[in-house]
Amino acid sequence: MFNMRVCMLFAGLLFAFPSGFTKQMDQQPQIPTPSPFPPTTAAPDEDRLRIEKDMAKKANLARQRDIQRDTEQLLKLATELKNAVDKSNENMLSLDVIRKADEVEKLAHSVKEKMRAGY
């Protein structure tokens, strides 16, 4: 009889209090934990686009420097080729002239490809 009364009292208490009340008692207060990373003002996509743009700009500057260096070398080789051709005669074409002409051709092709890479 005593057990029956205790059970009925316990059941009455369960119905008397809302279910959220017991859930609130079981939960611990949540304290926000700080992030180890500083907050960013820009979205990740914007950061990625900015980095890609900077990298493209640096690559373009390096390509431009390479083209300038190669064209200076091309001018030097073309001048040497002209001097070598001027020294030769109609009956004699030296191997040096042929080698210089090959170098000029390869370097000119390289410059042309670097210029196309920018477009």
Continuous helix count: 4
Report the count of strand segments: 0
Order of helices and strands: HHHH
Q: Low-confidence stretches at least 5 residues in length (pLDDT < 50)?
A: none
Radius of gyration, whole Å = 41 Å
Tell me the distance between the termini: 95 Å
Give a verbal description of the structure:
The protein is mainly alpha-helical and 119 residues long. It has a domain at 62-119. The chain is 76% helix and 0% strand. It contains 4 helices and no strands. It has helices at 2-16, 19-26, 44-87, 95-117. α3 packs antiparallel against α4 (95-117). The N and C termini lie far apart (95 Å). The model has no long low-confidence stretch (mean pLDDT 78).
